[in-house]
Design brief:
By secondary structure, this protein is α/β, with parallel strands linked by helices. It is built from nine helices and 15 strands. It is about 30% helix and about 20% strand. A six-stranded mixed β-sheet has the order 7-8-9-10-13-14, covered by helices on one side. Helix 1 packs parallel to helix 4 and helix 3 packs across helix 8.
Amino acid sequence: MKTAIVQGAPVPLDITEGLKRLLPLVQDAIDTGADMIAFGETFLGGYPLWLDEASDAAKWDHPGTKALHAMLLEQAVRENDPRFEALQALVDKANVTVSVGAHERRRNSLYNNQLLFRPGEIPLPHRKLVPTHSERLIWNRGDGSTLDIHNSPEARIGSLICWEHWMPLARAAMHNQGETVHVAAWPTVRESYSIASRHYAFEGRCFVLAAGTVQHRNDLLESIVRLGNNAEARELVMQMDDGQLQFGGSQIIAPDAEILVQAGDGLEIITAELDMSIIGQGLASLDTDGHYSRADVFELRVDRSAKDGVVWKD
């Protein structure tokens, strides 16, 4: 199985334009011969850099934060979004799977969703269970209904997003489903994130695609101008440092935690051929869902029901 990570630059906020950028990047990855293609966290809409980089972003009722939130709500993808038709057609034609992160709107809330597009099937969602720190200002929490994997002839593919890789029970739930290829979606794959991704590969005895993105402050300013040039949003973003703020660092990692290929901090596509036979070899010494699980001592219960918060009855 050949895999690719597209370490690309999102179009911040403007998801319609972001989808136009996504399609040729997917095609570029297909042209490498890849069967499985991964993009980083919230590639569609871009990671909300202002949460960490703009000093006033968390202030109560800040007009710039509210303006940016409204833009994301307006642009966010929805379930069965018709804007995905061209991507799905490309996936079907090339017989590939594509993992891409997006801001998703459900009712009036935003979610961080890592979507897996697969041939002939609807996209498989994974909504981030716990938005990290300042991310809770914009994203709602996912539930167990999207803690799932895709079973293809080549691999069993799943994903977690960013700091979910430090949730031991979430990892255990994914390992229990027998992942062989895992997408670890990050904004930048910095050192500690690489450690988490390599640990996941070793613990789960699976290949890991640790996918990061590249983003500059000017990318965000350009989108604000294109989406109406809101002065308050522009003023908030101008508090951020100029220049590059996300630095890629993507990696493809083997089940023994070896880094097979490492990206730099710019725009690039990295690829690796995965030898699935080595997964079984590694399981001889460590199977955290089997002979290392001690089911007589520990038990994990996973609630996979959707938690919509409202139940209507006639």
